[in-house]
Amino acid sequence: MANYGIIITQMESFSSIIFYITSFLLMYVQVFFMVTFLEKRREIKKREDVIELDSYPSITVIVPCWNEEKTIDKTVKSLLGVNYPKDKFFITLVNDGSTDGTKQVFSKYEGHPQIKLFHQENSGKHVALNLGLENATTPFIACLDADSYVHPQSVTRMMTYFISDPSVMAVAPVAIVDAPKTLIQKIQLVEYNMSAFTKQMLALVSGMHVTPGTLPIYRKEVFDLIGGFRKAYNTEDGEIALRMHKNHLKIAYCADAYVYTTAPASVPKLYKQRLRWMYGFINNVIDYRTMLFNPKFGVLGLLSLPSGLIAIFGIIFLFFKIIANIFNFIYEKAVQYSVVGSEGLVSRFTYSFDVFNINTKAIVFIVIIMYIFSVVSIILGTRIVSLKTKFPLYTIPFMIIYSIIAPFWMLKAIYNVATSQSTTWR
Amino acid sequence: MEKKDKQPFIKYLVVFIITLFIFVIASYLADFFTNKKIGEIKTVQDKIFIDLLSSETQFSLLQEIPCNTDSDSIVSPEMNELSQKLASSEHNSSISDEELTNLKKYYTILEIKDYLLTKRISERCSTKNEFILYFYDKNDCADCVKQDYILDDLRNKYPQLRVYLFDTELDLSALRSMVSIYKPEKDATSWLVINGKVYTGLKSIEDIEKILPGLKASLKTNTTTDAKKGAKTTEQSSVKTN
Questions:
Q1: Which one of A280, A328, B159, B227 is separated from B234 by 20 to 30 angstroms, measured CA to CA?
Q2: Are A1 and B140 an interchain contact pair (Cβ–Cβ within 8 Å)?
Q3: Burial of A313: CB neighbours in 10 Å, binned 0-12, 13-18, 19+
C-alpha cells in the first residue's frame, strides 16, 4: 500500500524548500532596490522647468513603421513639438513594407526640412533601424516606436546626461502608458510605474538590461564601436543593451524624460507582446550567458540578469503552487461532498471560519513582506513618473490579474525557447 | 579604484544581511503566533483535564448516590474543539513535529480518560451514549480522510455519539494497550470500534447509522420532546396571556 501521508509530506517539504530559496532570492533583489533607493535617491533628477543647454548637438530620431497608419501622424507631430532647435533635430521615418495606409501618411511629410522618408520591403524592425542609422550623419541617434509620443522637454533633459558625463553612451527615458482606457491598459500603467522604479534603480548601479524602444538616445559612436541593430528574437532593444554592457558602454536612465506609449488594450494583445519580450529576454540571456554571474559585468551580471530568470521561475512556481492549492481545495470538498453530502459540507464550511485557522506559517509572512515591497516599488515608481506620492488605484487588480496571466506567457516563452519556435510582432 | 571595487561587495553583503534579518523576523512572527496557538491548545487541554478530574470525582460521588444528575454535564464538551485546533495547527502553523507529537499524546490520553469515564457513567446510569473509536495510521491510510469527514458529520448530527480518534503511530503505552484490546483479526492500518465491536474498511454514514440504530431513534425522540416542550411553552404563554 502506498504511503500517501509520507509522499504528500515529502512533496510539501520539497516545495517549501524551493519556495524559501526562491523567495529569499527574490526578496534579496527587492531589498537591493530599496537599499539603492535610500543610498542614491538624491541622484534621481526631477526637473519641471524648461532646460536650456549650452550647446545643442544634432540628433536623428529613427522611427521604424510597419502598418502604423493610425498612430504615426501623432508620433511625428509629438516629435516636431519637441523643445529642441529645429536645425539640430531630425526625423527619419522608415516604412518597413507596410500594407496599410502608412505610405499615404508618409507622403504628408515629403519635403519637410526635418524629416527624411525611406521605404523598404518588409524586413523587420532591426533592418529599418539600420537603414536609418546608415543615413544618419548626426552625433546622436534616437529610436522611437511609431506608437509612442514624446513629451516636449524629454530630449533636452536626456541630453543633459550626455553633456554632464562623457562616459554615458545611451540614455533611456521613462515609458508611460498613453491614455489608458481598458482595464488591461490601466493595470499596465501600474506595471510601467513599477518598472520605472526598477529601471531607475538598475541604472543608478549600471545594471539596466534594456534600452526600450521608447526613445532611447545613443551616441553615434556606440554603433561605430559595436555595430548596428540585430534581429535578436524581435527584441533588438534588449540585445543592444546587453551588447553595450559587454563592451562596457554606460547606459543611463532619465527619470524626468517622459515618452507615452500605446499599451495593448486586451489580454490576447498583451499576451502576444509579453510573449515576444519574454522569449527575447530568455534567448538574449542565453546568447550572452557568459555575462551571467560574472562580476566583470557588475550588477548586470550578478543581479539584473539572474533576477530576471529567478523572477520567471518564481512566478511560474507560485502559479503552480496556487493551482495545486486550488485543486487540493476542490478535491477536498469533492471528497467531503461524496461522503457527507451537501448538508455536511455546509456545516463543515461554517465552523471552519475561526481566527485560529488563519495560516501563521513563516511562508505567509514572507509573502506579505514581498507584497509590501512590491507596493512600495509601485508607489516610488509612481513618484518617479508623476512626482506624486500615491497608491495607484489599479495596484490590486494589477497584482491579481498579472499573477493569473503572466505565468502563461512565461511558460509559453520557455516552451518556445525549448522547441526553437520564434515569436511574431503582432 | 580599489575602494570602488570593494563597495559593491559590501553592498551585496549588507543586502544579504537585511534579507536574512527579514526572514528571521518572518520566522519570529510565525513562532510568536504558533506559540499563541499552542498556548490556546494547552488552555483547552488543561480545561479538559480539570473537567475530567471533576467528572471522575463526580463519578465517585455518583456511585454512592442515585443517577439523577444530568450525565451530559459531566463529559468534556471541548474534546471536539481540541481535535479541530490540533488538526488546524498541524496545517496552518509552524508548530514543530516534537511539539505536535507531545500535544497529540496529551490529547490521546485525555481521549482515553474521557472514553473510559463516559463509558462507565453510561453503563452506571444507562445513558444513551454511543461510542466510536477510530484507529488509524495517517502515513498509510487511503480512506482516513473520508472516514474522518464521516465521523465528524455524525458527531455534529448526534450529540450523544462520542467519537475518539487515535493515531496509532504515537508512541504511547496507554494507546498501545487500547490497540491491543481493540486490534482487528486481519491486518489493517485503520479500523473502527463501534460499541466495542471491530469493523475494518470505510464505513459510510448509512453503514454506521445501521450499526447504531439508536442514533436515529434518539434524534426522533429528541425532536418529539423538543416539539412537546415547544407546545408546552406555547400553552404556558397563552395561559399567561390569558
A1: B159
A2: yes
A3: middle
Cβ separation A302–B146 shorter than 8 A: no
- Pairwise CB contact (< 8 Å): A3 & B19: no
Answer with the residue of higher pLDDT: B2 or B213.
B213
The fraction of chain B above a pLDDT of 70, given in percent, is 80
For A335, which of B91, B145, B153 is closest by C-beta distance? B145
Instruction: Give residue ranges of A with CB < 8 Å to any B CB.
Output: 1-6, 9, 24, 27-28, 31-32, 35, 39, 205, 298-299, 302, 332, 335-336, 338-340, 344, 347-348, 351, 354, 356-362, 364-366, 369
Q: Which residues pair with A62 in a beta bridge?
A: A92, A143
> Is 60 exceeded by the pLDDT of residue B138?
yes
Separation in Å, CA of A379 to nearest CA in chain B? 21
Q: Evaluate the CA torsion angle A5, A11, A13, A16 in order and state its sign.
A: negative
Question: Which residues in chain A have their CB less than 8 angstroms from residue B142's CB?
Answer: 1-2, 4
A356 contacts in B (CB within 8 Å)? Answer: 37, 40, 85, 88
Residue A284's pLDDT is: 95
CB A102 within 8 A of CB A95: yes
User: Is A359 in contact with B92 (Cβ distance < 8 A)?
Assistant: yes
Stated pTM of the model = 0.83
User: Cβ of B149 under 8 Å from any chain A Cβ?
Assistant: yes
The residue with greater pLDDT, B54 or A51, is A51
CB contact under 8 A, B37 and A335: no
What is the residue type of A23? Answer: S
Per-residue pLDDT for B242 more than 70?
Answer: no
- Confidence category of residue A4, pLDDT binned at 50, 70, 90: low
Q: Tell me, yes or no, if B12 comes closer than 8 A to chain A by beta carbon.
A: yes
Burial A158-189 (b: 16+ CB within 10 A, else e): bbbbbeeeeebbbbbbbbbbbebeeebbbbbb
**Higher-confidence position of B138 and A96:** A96
Interhelix angle for B2-62 vs A362-386, to 10°? 140
What is the pLDDT at residue B4? 40
Give the residues across from A120 on adjacent strands: A96
d(CA A150, CA A84): 12
The dihedrals phi and psi of A112, each to the nearest 5 degrees, come to -70, 130
- In A352-423, which residue ranges form alpha helices assigned H by DSSP? 362-386, 395-418
Per DSSP, the three-state class of B143 is coil
A205 to chain B: which residues are within 8 Å by CB? 8
User: Looking at chain A, how many residues does it have?
Assistant: 426
Among B26, B33, B153, select the one facing A340 at the smallest CB separation.
B153
SS3 A181: coil
B93 lies within 8 A of chain A by CB? yes
pLDDT tens digits, residue range A297-340?
A: 999 999 999 999 999 999 899 888 889 889 988 998 898 888 88
Q: Which amino acid is at A282?
A: I
Residue B240, min C-alpha distance to chain A (Å):
38
Residue of A290, A281, A260, A325 lying closest to A414 (CA atoms): A281
Measure CB to CB from residue A5 to each of B37, B88, B140 and give the nearest one.
Answer: B140
Say how many Å lie between the first and final Cα of chain B, rounded. 103
Q: Edge-to-edge strands of the sheet including B197-200? A: B161-167, B130-136, B190-194, B197-200
pLDDT value at position B183?
Answer: 87
DSSP string, B60-127: HHHTTS-S-S-GGGGS-TTHHHHHHHHHHHHHHS---HHHHHHHHHHHHHHHHHHHHHHHHHHHHHT-
